[in-house]
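Q: What does the assembled structure look like for these inputs?
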Amino acid sequence: MINLATSLGQTQTPEAVMFWILGPSAVLAALGMLLVKKAVHSAILLAWVMITLAIFYIAQDAVFLGIVQIVVYTGAVMMLFLFILMLVGVDSADSLTETIPGLRPIAITAAIGFGGLLVSLLGRATLGRQMVGLTVANTDGNVQELAKKLFSTYVWPFEVVSALLITAALGAMVLAHHQRTIIRPTQREQSINRFRGDSMASAAGLPGPGVFARHNAVDVPALLPDGSAAAASISATLKARGDVIDSRIFELSEVDTSVEEEK
Amino acid sequence: MNAANYLYVSALLFTIGAVGVVVRRNAIVVFMCVELMLNAANLAFVTFSRINGNLDGQVVAFFTMVVAACEVVVGLAIIVTIYRSRRSASVDDASLLKR
Amino acid sequence: MLINNGLVYLIALPLAGAAILLLAGRRSDKWGHILATLLSAASFSVGLLQLSQMLARPTGQRAVEQKLFEWISVGTFKVDAGLMLDQLSICFVLLITGVGTLIHIYSISYMSHDHDRRRFFAYLNLFIAAMLLLVLGNSYLNLYVGWEGVGLASYLLIGFWNQKPAYATASKKAFIMNRVGDMGLSFAIMIAFASLGTFSFAGIKEAAPHASTASLTAIGIMLLVAATGKSAQFPLQAWLGDAMAGPTPVSALIHAATMVTAGVYLITRSNFIFDAAPTAQLLVIIVGAITLLFGAVIGTAKDDIKKALAASTMSQIGYMILGAGLGPVGYAFAIMHLLTHGFFKAGMFLGAGSVMHGMDDEVNMRKYGNLRKFMPITFVTFGLGYLAILGVPPFAGFYSKDKIIETAFNAGGIRGLLIGSAALLGAGLTAFYMTRVMILTFTGAPRWDEKAHPHESPILMWLPMAILAIGSVSSGFLLSRGNALVNWLAPLFAEHAEKAEVLKPVVVTSLALLMVVIGVVIAFMKYSRGEVSSVAPEDVSALTKIVRRDLLQDDFNEAVFMRTGQGITNTLVKTDELVIDGLVRGVGSAALGSAGALRKSQTGFVRSYAAWILLGAVVLVAAIWLVTL
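A:
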């Protein structure tokens, strides 16, 4: 049995250097993605893995894919992820304790088995031929050669995939569309309601949040003249998310004037 | 250096992604892990393409990217919808199907 | 052979009558009975026309066939619905339509007070059509349709007054016991088809000589079972007595003259099978001999006039079956007795109906007495039938019954002696019980209630009785003059050598008459000399009690078949509940249990499903790993 590793040709040294730097870093980043608590950190680590892969693609004469990887994944997909993360709450963190009993050991054991078997399989797999390389295949340039394939042999899958993309776009729109169950009150109606309400307390509008120079504090309630926090000055969304900061930490403490006196 | 090393990396990344899908609770992270698995598969395709001197592997990787993009778009839309109604992005909370 | 010869009109006319009357419903109440009678008479006319055409043809070409339509067509196997009229069928056609028409006429008056008279006539027409199909079918399959048809008509007519539970039960009893016989017929047809490959009479007649004796015997025995069911022969005789629940014209037409003789027709028609299967033939003789005594014995103890006549019918059909069992030499005599019996027994039943008509539907003979003064015509017509059944020369029964007794003795050996003696004894018993009926009904002191006003029946009723009485007197003489019927039927049956006469005809006749005289004398001594109690005496011998219970036929059936059947049913129900249902429920609960266990794996958590997928992938990779090792 010919070992795959020995049967394939050796690559250039610069590529080896690149690989041995980027390969382990990608694996480590992927592992980190599993272990960090915050979803944002996971996203950043994933972006790193993707960039690494893009470099790997370019290094392996897949220039077009490498660029696409950067544009589509690191550009579009990761942006989408981050965008959704912002929507859901950028600070949201997973507790890493497992709630389903026995799942984690099973998953890790299975993963070790899976990975081990896969690596071992690759280790003794044989393709029965030398590494060919893409020099011949890319004669007219990678993009041109890919385009030839895409618009000849793979034109039918290509068209099907376009339909899939359109369907996905439509699906996303349908899912994101939110049907109003009540008619949105107009500004006129809102102001009428403010004055016709039981109390005139909010007739002049709700109070704004407490804004301090040192902190962009839409999440800090304003203080009322008596020193208590004005709950109505904070957006309900922030309250629901638990992102409200107690305004008392910003209360003025007694000014230490000793330093000035020394001056 | 040997081109097969890319394949080992691909296998490891795929395995890590699989574990992540099972272990992580945050739906967004789960999705990221799925993306990781797809990317690992792509790396394998590209490497095979190079080994065989044949661009078909790259074409398949290209299609995988498109499908992955679709999946992300729809998946994230679903996550947003779920989040809007349940105020949670945990996949464990969406376990009502068994009842 | 003529192809289109109008045979179908014989059946179509009464069938159309039944259809019109049943479909038109109450709208035809006013004229339905007249239409039915006219159609029956029309069918009789067609029968006469056919007879005249048949007589015009030479002996060899008398049989005609008519193909109606292709009935079953499966590959190369084809069965046509076809009719066949030959010398045997024409006898039946004329008997059925002739007596049938007379009874239609009689019923117009007899049923005039019944508000369901139209339905009654519809059923009568249906019966005529079915019975004609039975005797005209050119294959066993066609005969079977008619056979079932008359069974249905009989069921409907016995239960005509089904508002009385006892009558409804009687019709059910007749139907179920007939089913047993019908099963025999269907088995016979199946065996015939399996071993001979055809259903038609002609085809089977051709194939029979080459067939194995075993299969022919099996067919013969099954046909005999069918005949015992339809003709109320031992051991399927129990339904006939209860069938008297139907209106009296029905008893006269169906349960005396025509339908119950279908068994005799079946055996005679299947002569080619029985001739080649001696065992089956012997069984036929035994059944006939047993039944003729069985019926006669029951007849001696019946106080119900219709049931006494029914027992007599059973006994007389026993004679016919016996005759048919005697082989080629006896078929013609069986048919002759069938025809004469059709006349005199129908006449007597109509007479009984007339008596009941005058006595407010009283059937107990002990409540009659001295009716000859009030119903002279009924007395005379009944009396002529009485003389005919006794076999007094020159009345009809003398010619037909004595021939059977004679042929029985001629069978030879110990067998001939046994069956001949049985037939002779039966003749004596017949004389006894028929004389008893006569004495109790028409002579002696009146024993009826004061409310009863016996009176003669209207002309529409006594006219058919009179015509049948003429038949009772003359038919025997006419049919046997110059062996007319025997020669007429001869082409149908196998030729037979004249058997040596064991007893000279004169001796047989004398013996038979002697038995008759003895029977009559005993009856006179017993019933005519003293007063007859209007209630059946209770202090009688055990034997009498048994005979009054119809020789325990119902008790036997109940103990042996009903209880066993119930036992089997109960066991099967238990088996069904425990084993079959248990199995089904077991499968159900096993599925439920395993589902309950498996349900636990369905946590609803996507991640645990993902873990299962991962495990599956591990297995898959492990499999690849092992395969490529």
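Chain A is about 55% helix and 0% strand.
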